[in-house]
Automatic annotation (TrEMBL):
Entry keyword DNA-binding: yes
Pfam families recorded: HxlR
UniProt cross-references to InterPro entries, sorted A to Z: HTH_HxlR (IPR002577), WH-like_DNA-bd_sf (IPR036388), WH_DNA-bd_sf (IPR036390)
Organism the protein comes from: Hymenobacter monticola
The protein, known as: Helix-turn-helix transcriptional regulator
Gene3D superfamilies in the record: Winged helix-like DNA-binding domain superfamily/Winged helix DNA-binding domain
Domain of life: Bacteria
SUPFAM superfamilies, alphabetized: Winged helix' DNA-binding domain
Keywords per UniProt: DNA-binding, Transcription, Transcription regulation
């Protein structure tokens, strides 16, 4: 039996978007993919994100298993974020979304001819 089309509990896109949806998470994942990042370096890479929002996004990505947070026993303490295997498995998806976004932007830049 096929699930009803209007019931989002059957849609596999919903849990994926719950983990990576929003404006900031893909950008955070991308910058951490480039190399282990500290909180301050992420703020510099994404200057329009607030400290509160970055903290929230990092906590959610760690909770969902995409990030690993390592605290170094130093004074002052140092924290670095890296991608987990699950986080790395997201990269082809983000690359595909990026390619689609570029294509969409190009299409919008070229006005269609009206017959």
């Amino acid at each position: 039996m096929n699930p009803p089309l209007f019931d989002l509990t059957y849609c596999p896109i919903v849990p994926a978007l719950e983990v990576i949806g929003g404006k900031w998470k893909p950008l955070v994942v991308y910058h951490i993919y480039l190399g282990a990042q500290r909180f301050g370096s992420l703020l510099r890479c994404i200057p329009t994100i607030s400290k509160t929002m970055l903290t929230q996004q990092l906590r959610e990505l760690e909770r969902d298993g995409l990030l690993h947070r390592e605290v170094f026993a130093e004074v002052p303490s140092r924290v670095e974020y890296t991608l987990t295997q699950t986080g790395l498995s997201l990269l082809p998806v983000l690359k595909a979304i990026g390619a689609w976004g570029r294509q969409l932007k190009e299409q919008q830049a070229v006005p269609e001819l009206v017959a």
